[in-house]
Task: inverse folding
């Protein structure tokens, strides 16, 4: 199994994804919130690159069947029903509805993946399920860390490294990896006992705490806390049940 991990969206934009498995990771916060929405009973999460596209999709689906969720620079977008805090996605707010989501870092990356299969939204909250699914697929993998505004982020890289670790150690996969994957694995191995503390002290973690979302950082750092595997089907992230 060959693993190419990309530390930021810049090299991922140039990557050949056709026929490969792709995992999109945005720990703080869209990958975590996608898990939360599906766990709360959302019919699916539709990732969109921007507020305009999200609004058009909302009009198309209908306000009775969908809610708008999104943020820019951590703050809820004006006139959207929800932001990007995993605490907002409850049965009351999203149960039985589609969530049309646009975030600063994560959601735009899915537009690159339509020739890949499977395409999975990965977070620390569901990392073991992601590893299990990738191991079962047994094909070359791209791990795309969304980072923060185009730059490297510790939390996404640790998550990518943990995924590589699980594929090797738990699932016994013989892996050929690029240098970024080796770096991510090392970062995970040196921080595996202090993941929550490391993410809380990360640049993005400190920023979110400063604007009132410290709880979100703690939720996003809780390994395997959400038993949800979001798979992209026809432009929608849905729970894989088979």
Result:
């Amino acid at each position: 199994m060959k693993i190419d991990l990309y530390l930021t969206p810049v090299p991922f934009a140039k990557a050949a994804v056709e026929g490969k498995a792709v995992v999109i990771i945005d720990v703080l916060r869209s990958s975590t919130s996608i898990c939360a929405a599906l766990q709360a009973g959302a019919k699916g999460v539709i990732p969109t690159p921007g507020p305009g596209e999200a609004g058009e999709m909302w009009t198309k689906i209908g306000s009775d069947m969908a809610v708008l969720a999104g943020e820019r620079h951590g703050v809820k977008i004006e006139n959207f029903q929800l932001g990007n805090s995993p605490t907002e996605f409850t049965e009351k707010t999203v149960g039985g509805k589609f969530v049309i989501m646009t975030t600063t870092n994560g959601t735009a990356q899915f537009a690159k993946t339509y020739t890949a299969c499977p395409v999975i939204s990965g977070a620390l909250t569901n990392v073991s399920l992601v590893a299990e699914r990738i191991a079962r697929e047994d094909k070359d993998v791209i791990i795309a860390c969304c980072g923060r505004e185009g730059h490297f982020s510790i939390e996404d890289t640790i998550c990518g490294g943990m995924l590589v670790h699980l594929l090797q150690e738990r699932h016994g996969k013989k892996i050929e990896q690029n240098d970024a994957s080796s770096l991510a694995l090392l970062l995970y191995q040196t921080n595996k006992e202090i993941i929550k503390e490391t993410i809380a002290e990360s640049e993005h973690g400190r920023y979110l705490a400063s604007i009132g979302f410290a709880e979100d950082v703690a939720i996003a750092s809780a390994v395997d806390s959400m038993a949800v595997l979001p798979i992209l089907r026809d432009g929608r992230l849905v729970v894989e049940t088979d």
Remarks:
- Residues 2-236 form a domain with the putative 2-phosphosulfolactate phosphatase fold (CATH 3.90.1560.10).
- The chain has a mean pLDDT of 96.
- The chain is about 35% helix and 20% strand.
